[in-house]
Write a structure and sequence with these properties.
single chain, alpha/beta, six-stranded parallel β-sheet, about 15% strand, binds adenosine-5'-triphosphate, binds 3-phosphoglyceric acid, Phosphoglycerate_kinase, cytoplasm, transferase, phosphoglycerate kinase activity
């Protein structure tokens, strides 16, 4: 097992001293799922409230910044934070100003006009190329614009602490900075998973950010007893075992890597459970015709090589539920299928039920995973913890140094 560095604690709000009449920029992760302009899960907005309320009570002048989606450095009306400002205002029970730009004259005027305890949300950070630039100087320049006129920075977007982006890393370096309450609370739970996980320890992986998350597996193999693979990720595993997967999500250039994981798991005695059956659909659509097929014969469905895998099958769901039931600790990231379409939500529901029903310590990580369990009718109390960060919590569990936490230590 690789040596486990103890991570230094992050600075908390107390380190910033008295914030009355101070201009405080708060990085939140308000990246909520939207459907036709409607917020379909407001968990991340609710999770941000504790810090905002505390700063209001402290009399700070609060400038909130966040990203939404991946608009690629240019304005995109479909990724505007305006609907989020409206919902935040309702949940906070206090006015939340909004300006349609992140930096510029209008933003500067609105920031300067804030009075003690008032809240302003700026437009999507990722409309600006400097936010996600690979060039450190560009990120630094954008962070300097965000920092202008501010006295302090609070990092509370747990979902992005694994990103080296201007509002996460360079902004924290530009101002006196500390972790907000959400980041601190998330770290407390995740520390329990990394330092003393009760065994057997099972990790369930799914979702669609396959290339982001495959790499996590190498590190998880050193730490877990069982890995259950569903969601978009499973098809790269099936391909690694020599099976055809039609038009399903596939990272062809990762097949060799995945073969390496399978061999390594065998060497270490880690159980990787792959689906025995999957749901093949005629197309990626809510009302697509579909059929359950053996995972090792995916193209045997009536859609042949045109089929696209959108969920794990019922046998797989049962075997995953059984493995979860036998575990003392379970971490789950990524839906098992395209749960947004009811016809392909059964696998995700089965896994959620198994987590809710086990006596073990359960943690769900990820914006979409959290949205999935809530949309299927589970309440947050059914699970040990629902983390707002998908990629972030996984990278934390991997043992990686997260850039957004390093700058707060
Ligand atoms: N077989 C599949 N094919 C395509 N997409 C899938 C499949 N299974 C699940 N998905 C999609 O995966 C998406 C969620 O994946 P993602 O990796 O973003 O999850 P998350 O970790 O919970 O979220 P985040 O990383 O954004 O916090 C869902 O929108 C779901 O429809
Ligand atoms: O949804 C997430 O995991 C966070 O909001 C981070 O988004 P990103 O993967 O686009 O950086």
């Amino acid at each position: 097992m690789s040596p486990r560095r103890r991570r230094p604690p992050v600075r908390t709000l107390e380190s910033l001293g008295d914030l009355r009449s101070k201009s405080v920029v708060v990085r939140c992760d308000l990246n909520v799922p939207l459907r036709d302009g409607e917020i379909t899960d407001e968990g991340r907005i609710r999770a941000s409230l504790t810090t905002i309320r505390e700063l209001r009570e402290a009399g700070a002048r609060i400038v909130l910044v966040s990203h939404l989606g991946r608009p690629g450095g240019a304005p995109d009306p479909d990724a505007s934070l305006r609907p989020v400002a409206a919902r935040l205002e309702e949940l906070l029970g206090a006015p939340v100003g909004f300006v349609g730009e992140t930096v510029g004259d209008e933003a500067e005027r609105a920031r300067a006009a804030l009075r003690d305890g008032e809240v302003l949300l700026l437009e999507n950070l990722r409309f600006n190329p400097g936010e996600t630039s690979k060039d450190e100087a560009e990120r630094r320049a954008f962070a300097a614009e965000l920092a202008r006129g501010a006295d302090a920075f609070v990092s509370d977007g747990f979902g992005v602490v694994h990103r080296r982006q201007a509002s996460v890393t360079e902004l924290a370096e530009a101002l006196p900075s500390a972790a907000g309450r959400l980041v601190a609370a998330e770290l407390e739970v995740l520390r329990r998973l990394t330092e003393h996980p009760e065994r057997p320890y099972t990790v369930v992986l799914g979702g669609s950010k396959v290339s982001d998350k495959l790499g996590v597996i190498a590190h998880l193999l050193e730490r877990v007893d069982t890995l259950l693979i569903g969601g978009g990720m499973l098809f790269t595993f099936l391909a690694a075992n020599g099976h055809r997967v039609g038009r399903s999500l596939l990272e062809a250039d990762q097949i060799e890597t995945v073969r390496g994981y399978l061999a390594e798991a065998q060497r270490r005695g880690v159980r990787i459970v792959l689906p025995g059956d999957v749901v093949a659909a005629a197309s990626f659509a809510e009302d697509a015709e579909h059929q359950v097929v053996p995972a090792d014969d995916f193209e045997s469905s009536r859609f042949g090589a045109e089929g696209i895998g959108l969920d794990i099958g019922p046998d797989t769901a049962r075997s995953f539920a059984e493995a979860i039931g036998e575990s003392a600790t379970v971490f789950w990231n990524g839906p098992m299928g395209v749960f947004e379409f009811p016809a392909f939500a059964a696998g995700t529901r089965a896994v959620a039920e198994a987590l809710a029903g086990t006596g073990g310590f359960t943690v769900i990580g990820g914006g979409d995973s959290a949205a999935a369990v809530r949309s299927l009718g589970f309440d947050d109390e059914s699970f040990g913890h629902i983390s707002t960060g998908g990629g972030a919590s996984l990278e934390y569990l991997e043992g990686k140094t997260l850039p957004g936490l390093e700058v707060l230590a």
